[in-house]
């Protein structure tokens, strides 16, 4: 049957590091079904199987095929090469799943800097999309304690003054017990002249500094 060759091909083209990534993020893919038309594309994308993805696209599977949770291959993959192939084939970089998560939300949650950089720099994905709870990728990165991702997104222009279900990114970092990240954001706001601050200096700094100082004071007790 087809399942045997597919598994053999995936194993042949998946490095130990990629296999570890697949295992780490398996919870994101519990909804995958290969018994429905198009499901194989999602599974190949999730497994990091570029050859399988290319085969499914050649077979006519729509590049934005949606699974049961309205997720596309762009949501499933943690592989930059696969993401590039999907975008080249016309995939929507800001596609939304049932919870209104975009591919950048998933990259932020996973702490996958490779796909995040590709989405923001090359694919020109929206950097501040809000999900059903009004949370942005930046807020998710802080919630899941992905410090490097928070720093990248802030430096790339993510909205540090935006509020979601958990408050601003400063609120999230403080609540998740990340005093060093709160300090880093404080330094960025006060001392850097990044794009986020330059665009709305008068509005952002007065709003964020009290929050930051309150969070820092709380950690110093």
UniProtKB/TrEMBL annotation:
Cited InterPro entries: Ank_Repeat/CDKN_Inhibitor, Ankyrin_rpt, Ankyrin_rpt-contain_sf
Positions of region (Disordered): 1-25
Bias (Polar residues) ranges: 14-25
Sequence ranges of Basic and acidic residues compositional bias: 1-11
Pfam families according to UniProt: Ank_2
Coiled coil ranges: none
UniProt keyword terms in alphabetical order: ANK repeat, Repeat
Alphabetical list of PROSITE patterns matching this protein: ANK_REP_REGION (PS50297), ANK_REPEAT (PS50088)
ANK repeat windows: 133-165
Name of the protein described by the UniProt record: Uncharacterized protein
Organism expressing this protein natively: Lotharella oceanica
